[in-house]
Amino acid sequence: MKVNLQAVNFNVDRKLVDFVQEKLDKLEKYYDKIVSSDVFLKVENTSDKENKTVEIKINVPGDDFVVKKTAKSFEEGVDLAVDSLERVIVKRKEKLRAN
């Protein structure tokens, strides 16, 4: 799956890019028609510890899924977002199968 990663207000390191790619690749075992995904990583300028925002947009034929999560680290945010996407994708697949 093609992953477009965009980091806002900071430089992303290779380890984080690989982590995101690996997590998103796992989504393909739930739904194999995923075309691409856009990942936006942002650091919010707040005094909160949870200031890392991860937004993932998954492109599938006929639809787009967008999930936005905020957490203490990007890894945690990606985990939360991928878990949500997993549920959404499985729900969509079941709906398609029912029709």
Q: Secondary-structure map with pairings?
A:
Layout: E1 2-8, H1 14-27, E2 36-43, E3 52-60, E4 63-71, H2 74-98
Parallel strand pairs: 1-2
Antiparallel strand pairs: 2-3, 3-4
Structure description:
The protein has 99 residues and is α+β, with helices and mostly antiparallel strands. Helix content is 39%, strand content 33%. It has one domain (2-98): Double Stranded RNA Binding Domain. The chain contains two helices and four strands. Helix 1 (14-27) runs parallel beside helix 2.
| CATH fold-level label | Double Stranded RNA Binding Domain
Question: What separation lies between the terminal Cα atoms?
Answer: 26 Å
Q: CATH first level: which class?
A: Alpha Beta
How helical, in percent, are the residues? 25-40%
- CATH level-four homologous superfamily name: Ribosome hibernation promotion factor-like
* Low-pLDDT segments: none
Average predicted local confidence, pLDDT: 90
- Helix count from the secondary structure assignment: 2
Q: Can you count the beta strands?
A: 4
Could you give a short account of the major beta sheet? 4 strands, mixed
Helix and strand sequence: EHEEEH
The domain tally reads 1
**What is the radius of gyration computed over CA atoms, rounded to a whole number of angstroms?**
14 Å
Secondary structure category: alpha+beta
How does the overall form come out from the CA principal axes?
A: elongated
Arrangement of strands in the largest sheet: 1-2-3-4
